[in-house]
């Protein structure tokens, strides 16, 4: 039997309203402190990204969110560009990254990358909705690296299926790292490292669940408090009774490299593009000043 709430405990309605009111822009998860936890992958993505940024000369961060992870790196290359498809996040990323000399380009997640072939020696991404391998391979210079952390199969599905009911096997098998490996290799990329882990998550109140599902919108598409009020109430009672709701996220680390081209007739590889933007202005918006100007 569930314990009765103390006179000072917030009610179900108060918790739901609180979670519903929290802003969802960016990828800052500090609001969850004390309300939810997630174990971190052993490889330390932000640390590994920062190390590679420190060695890069031109970098692209795909689907940067509010730019929080990219901004955590102590050094950014002189040419650093980020893309983001959601306008509130693009504006937030601009405010964060522009002072560091980075360019933020508002570009839809499913659109071709608006950059020249071979523009970057490093492409990064944390939790892309989908990895567009052909485009990633195209914008990488020969010898360049793609370094990313992807969401894996059936991530947080204990929570998702509480709201949706059991999902088909083909949905549960989506984002399979071995399938992604095959897709990457089909573009000519070489896989340097691929590691996967499942990580424990705990939700300590229903406000955290509401905010999580509103922030990570692809978990339960179309989620709203009104549409899922019965499921929220039953989960609230379960959390009160058991102390928390446990789920498991799935993450995998990708490091892929584009093979170097043979040397040209002068004994050198072709020089990379001095300015990375191709077809600029066709459906994209450019925020901030470029980190370097085109030569010539």
Folded structure, characterized:
It is built from ten helices and nine strands. Strand 3, helix 4 and strand 4 form a beta-alpha-beta unit. Helix 1 runs parallel beside helix 9. The radius of gyration is 21 Å and the shape is globular.
Terminal-residue CA separation: 75 Å
* Major pleated sheet: 9 strands, mixed
Rough outline? globular
Low-confidence stretches: 262-267, 285-296
Instruction: Give the % helix.
Output: 25-40%
Strand order of the largest sheet: 1-7-8-6-5-2-3-4-9
Enumerate how many helices there are, as a single number.
10
Can you write the helix and strand succession as a string? HEHEHEHEEHEHHHEHHEE
Beta-strand proportion? 15-25%
The total beta strand count reads 9
Overall mean pLDDT stands at 89
Instruction: Please give the radius of gyration in angstroms.
Output: 21 Å
Put the structure in a nutshell.
The protein is built from ten helices and nine strands. The protein has helices at 12-21, 45-55, 68-71, 87-97, 133-139, 157-164, 169-172, 177-186, 206-215, 229-242, and strands spanning 36-38, 58-61, 79-84, 103-106, 120-126, 140-151, 190-203, 245-257, 285-287.
Key phrases:
296 residues, alpha/beta, 10 helices, disordered C terminus
Write the layout of secondary structure elements.
Elements (H helix, E strand, L loop, with lengths): L11 H10 L14 E3 L6 H11 L2 E4 L6 H4 L7 E6 L2 H11 L5 E4 L13 E7 L6 H7 E12 L5 H8 L4 H4 L4 H10 L3 E14 L2 H10 L13 H14 L2 E13 L27 E3 L9
Parallel strand pairs: 2-3, 2-5, 3-4, 5-6
Antiparallel strand pairs: 1-7, 4-9, 6-8, 7-8
């Amino acid at each position: 039997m569930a314990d009765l709430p103390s006179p000072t405990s917030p009610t179900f309605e108060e918790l739901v309203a609180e979670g519903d009111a929290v802003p969802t822009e960016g990828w800052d998860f500090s609001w969850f402190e004390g309300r939810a936890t997630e174990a971190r992958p052993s490889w330390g993505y932000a640390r590994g990204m920062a190390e590679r940024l420190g060695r890069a000369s031109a970098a692209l961060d795909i689907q940067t969110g509010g730019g929080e992870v990219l901004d955590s790196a102590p050094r950014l290359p002189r040419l650093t560009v980020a893309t983001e498809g959601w306008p509130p996040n693009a504006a937030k990323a601009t405010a964060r990254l522009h002072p560091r000399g980075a360019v933020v380009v508002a570009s839809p997640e499913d659109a071709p990358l608006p950059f020249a072939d071979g523009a970057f020696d490093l492409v990064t991404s944390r939790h892309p909705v989908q990895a567009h391998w052909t485009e990633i391979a195209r914008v990488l210079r020969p010898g360049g690296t793609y370094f990313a952390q992807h969401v894996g199969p059936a991530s947080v599905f204990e929570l998702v299926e509480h709201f949706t009911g059991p999902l088909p096997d083909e949905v549960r098998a989506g984002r399979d790292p071995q399938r992604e490996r095959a897709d990457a290799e089909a573009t000519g990329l070489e896989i340097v490292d691929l590691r996967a882990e499942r990580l424990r998550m705990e939700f300590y109140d229903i406000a955290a669940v509401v905010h999580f599902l509103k922030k990570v919108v692809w978990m339960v598409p179309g989620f709203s408090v009104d549409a899922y009020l019965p499921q929220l109430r039953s989960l609230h009672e379960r959390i009160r009774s058991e102390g928390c709701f446990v789920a498991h996220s799935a993450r995998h680390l990708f490091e892929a490299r584009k093979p170097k081209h043979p040397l040209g007739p002068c004994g050198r590889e072709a020089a990379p593009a001095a300015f990375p933007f191709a077809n600029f202005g066709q459906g994209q918006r450019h925020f901030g000043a470029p980190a370097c100007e085109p030569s010539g």
